Amino acid sequence: MLIIIEPFYGGSHKQLIDILTKDLNKEEFILIQMKAKKWHWRARSSALWLSQNIPEKLDNVTVMFCSSVLNLCELVGLRPEFNAIRKIMYFHENQLVYPVQQKQDRDFQYGYNQILSSLVADELIFNSEYNLNSFLDNISKHFKPQPDYKPNTSLIISQLKQKSSVLYFPIYEELKNIPSVIKNCDNKVGPLRIVWSHRWEHDKNPDSFFSTMSKLKHEGLDFRLIVLGESYSECPDAISQVKNELDSHIDWFGYAESNEYYELLASSDVVVSTAYHETFGVAMLEAAYLGCYPLAPNRLVYPEIYPTECLYNTDIQLYNKLKCFILNPSLVRSTSLFFDFLKFNADNFKRLLVDR
What tens-digit pLDDT sequence spans the chain (356 residues)? Predict the structure, then answer.
């Protein structure tokens, strides 16, 4: 039997679990989850609550699957029977490279907890090569502020490498079941429709995107804008201000339920990222699958996933590409990019979790 433990059951964390358990019988897994609120408190303190709410008897459980939000060290300390269970930890992101607005804002403990949890886990799965490498490459740097008695980071990295691998986030199963949406949007007409579909937080760098859109507006260019996303904390100023400034160009602003969300993506032409932090990018790939031309910065995970023609190096390059597409929408509407979406399927996950 499989036990799934998720302290932050929302967004891509919930999406992954729902995909993995879709074909399982209720007798094949146990799901212990907490609502997707107060991420920082989940990372700090969820292990104690979970230890009290996980069933006392785990006789038939052979595999545990959890995300890196969980402090696995604390949970195993509180529930030592997990020592005998194979523990698989999935990294949607890693705290060693999460961008903070001020250097003093970086909390050493979040990254430290992920390193310790990695040492306790039996297997580490990352959602991209970039995520895996950026985690391992920044372990030594993370301990630099520690004044003395520093651990042997070379030993830690060596231990973690041996049990680490990459499995891309499995978006394919969900998307392949909505072809009717795509068919309804085959013949796109009118002004170019641009999508920004990210979590409304500073690490997605909304300032650069909306600054670029403002420049395009002030040139008198005709385009439509879809602003999708969800806010888990304070909304960045750029997003708070944009609705008034770009209101005449906006067709959608805010959260959309799944069917409407997919329809909005499928009816659009270009999807844009300006992120400072991205280890996979579910929203970008969903949009690309549904026919949007992706424009992403030439950094982070994007060069691993997207062809060179979809990458830009500066905000000026992004502005120039968008201006070119706005003036001639047929450039993107007649372009077909090849993506091997089969590598984003759930088969490898299911073998990993069920066939143990």
Answer: 899 999 999 988 998 999 888 888 888 899 999 999 888 999 999 999 999 999 998 888 999 999 999 999 999 999 999 999 999 999 999 999 987 655 554 689 999 999 999 999 999 999 999 999 999 999 999 999 999 999 999 999 999 999 999 999 998 777 777 765 565 566 788 999 999 998 888 889 989 999 999 999 999 999 999 999 876 556 666 676 777 788 899 999 988 988 899 999 999 999 999 999 999 999 999 999 998 999 999 999 999 999 999 999 999 999 999 999 999 999 999 888 888 888 888 887 777 776 54
| Residue entry with tokens 């190096």 | 313
Q: Give CATH superfamily name and number for 173-341.
A: Glycogen Phosphorylase B; (3.40.50.2000)
Query: Which residues fall within 8 angstroms of residue 328, CB to CB, at 6 or more apart?
Result: none
- Rounded Cα distance between 273 and 296, Å, is 5
Give the start-to-end residue ranges of the domains of the chain.
2-167, 173-341
pTM for this model (two decimals)? 0.89
Taking the domain 2-167, which CATH number applies? Answer: 3.40.50
